[in-house]
Amino acid sequence: MPLIVDGNQVPSRWLERKHSARVHPLYGGGARSKCVRIALINNMPDSALEDTEFQFFELLDAASEDLPVFLKLYSLTGVPRSDRGMRHLNSFYFGLDDLWKSDLDGAIITGTEPHHEDLKDEPYWSHLSSVLDWAERSTTSTILSCLAAHASVLYSDGVNRHKLPDKQFGVFRSNRVRAHPLIENLPLAVEFPHSRWNEVRETDLVASGYTVLTKSPAAGVDMFVKKRSRSTFVYFQGHPEYGSQTLFKEYRRDVRRFLRGEREAYPTMPVGYFDPKTMELLSRFQDDVSVDRRENRIDSFPESACEGLSSKWRLTASSIYRNWLNQFVRKEERSTVASFTRAGRIGHDSMNGEIA
């Protein structure tokens, strides 16, 4: 079934990838009632805006299988944008005024690159707070990715994030620690990418009523949930949506920042991601540029390091998102049965009245 993108305009990169075969703009509201309706609130910076959009399109497309998914794109007001970024948002995204009046089943909220130690000082904080309030009362379930997860637990329960000594960067193995419908039929150990400088800790989360589903000996809590008003919030500290080359692109970006002098230390390689031969190649490049630090040295960065990278976590990610989408179907089925039962009781009572 198609991934249906609202707005009569589908981002060209996705159309090129799919050759228009499985993605269709929505004409009119007729198809809407037959779909699971999701808001993708994409707040990533311009450098990752379209990549993130594409990653979630791919993940939802794989997870949906025969289930039609209606997707509507939004972004927070207050996230710094270039002219190009604003043109993209104006072409394919809806404003928050539209979100408040939309009839949607669920939402996916991404993070963005922070510029302040205290997330409450970010220029988009008030808008994000309003979106979180909306999600609590207006969705059946909402997924929060990385920084959005940190912002949500801070806003709702005052759970602070903690600075890590180095970037938590790479592909980490996590263990299932509790049964839950979202991780049904998953292996006991799963792997997901992480890319963050901060963490929220298990002890703080549990004390505030969160349920941890997966955690890693090396990377800490991975996936956790909490019921909020009428919605189940699903939190990821990692990035199950990442494509095979996303960590590579982030590593190359961080190397460029080092060469520009925007960071003091050379970035640590993502763990569990490159094979030994590639790691040796990248280490030689690091040795060379560390003694001759110039921005134009990025031109000799070994691009071949991205060849053959696998996204071994994608099947697991698709399974989790499939389970997530299925909860909306089960909810609809329960509502239909309940309506049918109520209607049956009314008819039965009326008949008894007439007979009496």
Largest sheet: 11 strands, mixed
Structural class: alpha/beta
Radius of gyration: 22 Å
Average pLDDT metric: 87
CATH topology of the largest domain: Rossmann fold
Write structural notes for this entry.
By secondary structure, this protein is of the alpha/beta class. The protein has 2 domains: 3-242 and 311-339, Class I glutamine amidotransferase (GATase) domain (Rossmann fold); 246-306, no CATH class. 40% of the residues lie in helices and 21% in strands. The protein has 10 helices and 11 strands. An 11-stranded mixed sheet has the order 2-1-4-3-5-6-11-10-9-7-8. Helix 2 packs across helix 10.
What tags apply to this protein structure?
alpha/beta, 21% strand, disordered C terminus, 2 domains, 10 helices, 356 residues, 11-stranded mixed β-sheet
Structure in a nutshell:
The protein is of the alpha/beta class and 356 residues long. The chain has helices at 12-18, 46-64, 83-92, 96-100, 125-138, 147-157, 202-207, 246-260, 276-290, 314-355, and strands at 3-5, 23-25, 36-41, 69-74, 106-109, 141-145, 162-176, 189-199, 211-216, 220-228, 231-236. The protein folds into two domains: 3-242 and 311-339, 3-Layer(aba) Sandwich (Rossmann fold), CATH 3.40.50.880; 246-306, no CATH class.
Topology:
Blueprint: E1 3-5, H1 12-18, E2 23-25, E3 36-41, H2 46-64, E4 69-74, H3 83-92, H4 96-100, E5 106-109, H5 125-138, E6 141-145, H6 147-157, E7 162-176, E8 189-199, H7 202-207, E9 211-216, E10 220-228, E11 231-236, H8 246-260, H9 276-290, H10 314-355
Parallel strand pairs: 1-2, 1-4, 3-4, 3-5, 5-6, 6-11
Antiparallel strand pairs: 7-8, 7-9, 9-10, 10-11
Helix pairs in contact: 2-10
